[in-house]
Amino acid sequence: MTKLLLNPASKVYLRGLERELGVSSNTVRLELNKLNEMHLIKVQVDPDNSKVKHYAVNTAHPMFSSLRGIIMQFVGLDQIIEQVIDKLGNVEKVYLTGDLAEGKDSPFVDLVLIGDVDKNYLYQLIQKAEGLIPQKKIRVAVYASQEQHSFLENFKGSYFHLLN
Fold first, then answer.
1. Fewest CB within 10 A of the end CB: N or C in the chain?
2. Orientation of helix 25-37 relative to helix 14-21, angle to 10°
3. How far is Cα 57 from Cα 46, in angstroms, rounded to an integer?
4. Mind listing the pLDDT tens digit for each residue in 4-26?
5. Which H/E stretch holds residue 46?
6. CA separation for the pair 129, 122 (Å, rounded)
7. Which tens digit of pLDDT belongs to each residue from 45-55?
8. Nearest-CA neighbor of 92 among 141, 138, 144, 139?
9. Which residues pair with 147 in a beta bridge?
10. DSSP state letter for 21
């Protein structure tokens, strides 16, 4: 559920979750069915293979915003947004990358910032934010606005818009 709440555009499927979590497919199926019954996730049948079902978070669910907020707090992203991103001013877009973007727990919060950023001030803000979320280290890459296309074209891992 963390993966889906952090990145609402992501989709998961039974066998993929089975491998990721290291549990039986029956265990995963039971949990997916419970989440589906509560309408927290929705099932999407793969048009190329009707036997494969993909699961996505139901962003229209009344609890979506609250649950996403809890996950953002758990991961520390709320503090990063408040203490770093909101204070920089000239940030056009923020992408979450790395393990967290894939919904996996990680001691690192990997961010890509697009915009005109004072890097010295950025690193001061990061130090403050890391003091508030001691279980995480923040790693940041900064791209100028005109370099955004290069980042999107060349980045091979998972990422999603955190803010734009």
1. C
2. 120
3. 16
4. 887 787 788 888 888 877 888 88
5. strand 41-46
6. 10
7. 877 877 788 88
8. 144
9. none
10. H
